[in-house]
């Protein structure tokens, strides 16, 4: 009996000792957790399972399945792409534009001026400067025009739409792009302006009213055309929609056209888009002139130009 009691008492003592050990370990664990929470550090991590491989220290975080690895960058180019992207692309900023033109003109020599901006502005000042201080007028004109890259983004889509309207003789669609004062139409860049209101443009296909279209100030026998024939014989004499090479605020000597006069006959405005076509009869160009807000430009002038005349 004594032996049985001794075994039982030993077992009880062993259980009590193990309980005390477990309680002590639990108390240590709770204390460690409390200390880590107070200090903001993470608790000790559980040991990694055997055979696990740790990633290299500089490894990039894994992407979730199906995530795109290609950045969303606009890569569309050309008139059609620009027209479809006009609603989603950020509007061109005119503030950096003016600064860019000032920076380019300040340190550029005539040989560096690939688009002939300085030459064109000098000619424009002689034509429409009207006695204004030369340097101030030139500086104001530089700030007005958008740089070629900004002009391309701003005017590609609307130029495509205008050319499509001309090609398909949808003159009412052309009128939708005109400013509230209408469009100044010049048979050549030396010619006087024929103002066509949006209403006159809308009714152009049915108009039978003939007006004269002088090619210069001294033209004594200007050809008489109604509105529709004027577009067919002067402004859209070639299929500029398909063969016109576009140039945006670029006035290189190759753009000389009919004489040394500037294409800038009013304004200046924010955008001059040339659609140029080389052919057996010489170089023909159609100029579309825009003004207003670069985010919603308006057609204010249209100029025909024939280098072979």
What does this structure look like?
The structure is a single chain. With 309 residues, this protein is an alpha+beta fold. The protein has helices spanning 2-39, 79-85, 94-107, 117-128, 134-144, 148-167, 171-175, 198-202, 227-235, 240-243; strands at residues 183-186, 194-196, 211-212, 224-225, 245-248, 271-279, 282-291, 298-306. Helix content is 40%, strand content 14%. α4 (117-128) packs across α5. Mean pLDDT is 72; it is low at 1-15, 25-30, 55-91, 94-100, 102-112 and 254-258.
Short description:
This protein is of the alpha+beta class. It has ten helices and eight strands. The longest helix has 38 residues.
Defining key terms:
6-stranded mixed sheet, two-stranded antiparallel sheet, 40% helix, 14% strand, globular
């Amino acid at each position: 009996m004594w032996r049985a009691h001794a075994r039982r008492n030993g077992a009880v003592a062993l259980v009590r000792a193990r309980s005390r050990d477990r309680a002590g370990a639990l108390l240590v664990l709770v204390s460690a957790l409390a200390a880590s929470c107070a200090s903001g550090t993470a608790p000790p991590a559980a040991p990694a399972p055997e055979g696990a491989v740790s990633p290299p220290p500089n490894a990039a975080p894994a992407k979730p399945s199906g995530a795109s690895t290609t950045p969303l960058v606009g890569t569309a180019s050309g008139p059609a792409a620009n027209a479809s992207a006009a609603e989603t692309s950020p509007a061109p900023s005119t503030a950096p534009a003016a600064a860019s033109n000032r920076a380019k003109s300040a340190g550029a020599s005539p040989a560096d001026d690939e688009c002939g901006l300085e030459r064109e502005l000098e000619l424009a000042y002689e034509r429409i400067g009207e006695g204004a201080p030369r340097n101030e007028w030139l500086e104001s004109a530089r700030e007005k025009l958008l740089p070629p890259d900004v002009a391309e983004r701003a005017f590609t889509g609307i130029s495509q739409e205008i050319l499509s309207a001309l090609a398909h003789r949808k003159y009412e669609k052309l009128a939708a792009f005109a400013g509230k004062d209408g469009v100044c139409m010049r048979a050549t860049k030396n010619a006087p302006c024929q103002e066509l209101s949006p209403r006159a443009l809308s009714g152009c296909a049915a108009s039978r009213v003939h007006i004269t279209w002088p090619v210069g100030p001294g033209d004594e026998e200007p050809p008489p055309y109604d509105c529709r024939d004027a577009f067919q014989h002067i402004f859209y004499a070639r299929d500029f929609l398909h063969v016109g090479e576009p140039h945006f605020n670029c006035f290189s000597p190759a753009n000389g056209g009919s004489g040394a006069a500037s294409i800038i006959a009013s304004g200046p405005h924010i955008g001059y888009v040339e659609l140029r076509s080389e052919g057996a009869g010489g170089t023909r160009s159609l100029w579309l002139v825009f003004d207003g807000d670069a985010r919603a430009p308006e057609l204010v002038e249209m100029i025909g130009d024939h280098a072979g005349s």
